[in-house]
Amino acid sequence: MTRSAPAAGSALYDIPGPVTRRRHFTYGVVSTVAILAALGWLLYLLFDTDQFTAAKWNPFTYKGIQELLLRGLGNTLKAFAYAAVLSLALGAVLAVGRLSVHRPVRWVSTLLVEFFRAMPVLVMIFFIFVALKVQPLPALVAGLTLYNGSVLAEVFRTGVNSVERGQREAAYALGMRKTQVTTYVLAPQAVRAMMPTIISQLVVALKDTSLGFLITYEEFLHAGKLIASNLDYDLPFIPVVMVISPIYIGMCMLLSWFATWLARRQRRNPKTEAVGVDPAAPRSLLPGTREPRA
């Protein structure tokens, strides 16, 4: 009697039995009920404080307030676009420096990466804005670039080092230089593995653009604060938060969806698929050889 092969899902953990499945189902039901109860309590508080009355939502129908929100959203996206592009470029440069065979270059790159990773991003933004007297947008972009670029440098370096050693050795055996090995062999494979982490760090950069309101940069959160401070009813910040938060969440979810779509497209790319090799037939010969005589 032959023994069946283990299921693919049991490679890392045992398949749960009936008791474990019932326990997990109970945990899921209890968690769902708790979440729904919390949401119900939150909605009760919002209705109890009259947060859905027409008087508190009529200001958002004014053209001036809509233009203010759109202008703030545009400034947020502009700061994020600059910070994202510069962070990716800085991360690539620092990662190449950390992977360099020249010791001084590697040491300097390591020092910069560790320093900017340890420094709070708000402190860097304030220092650039106050001490260096830089305008709000460049100060915000510079602070986000230095922090996120240093984090992405470690992501890039780890991704390149995670590629199998045989790939590197095979490329060197073909006579490729170190730059060619990194550019054409290691980096394309590493990017596919790093893509979720890169997008996650870009989501962090998008959310950190809200720190711009602390240096008077007119971004989305600054526009919401300006609107709430000019409303003349109780708890004016709650409707503003209820308008701004879904937009922030939607932009972050859009980035995550883009990462998923990009990863799925790369998996379907014929250039990244393995090439099938026909099995060797009996008495098959290598090219350029002749069948031996009896």
Summed up:
With 294 residues, the protein is an all-alpha fold. It has 10 helices and no strands.
Can you describe this structure?
The structure is a single chain. By secondary structure, this protein is mainly alpha-helical. The protein is built from ten helices and no strands. Helix 4 (103-118) packs across helix 6.
What's the rounded overall pLDDT mean?
82
What is the gyration radius calculated from CA atoms? Answer: 28 Å
Q: State the helix count.
A: 10
What multimeric state do the chains show? single chain
Shape: flat
Largest sheet: none
Structural class: mainly alpha
The total of beta strands comes to 0
Quote the distance from N terminus to C terminus: 45 Å
Low-confidence stretches: 1-11, 272-278
List its traits.
10 helices
Helix and strand arrangement:
Blueprint: H1 18-48, H2 54-57, H3 63-98, H4 103-118, H5 121-131, H6 136-161, H7 165-173, H8 178-208, H9 220-229, H10 237-268
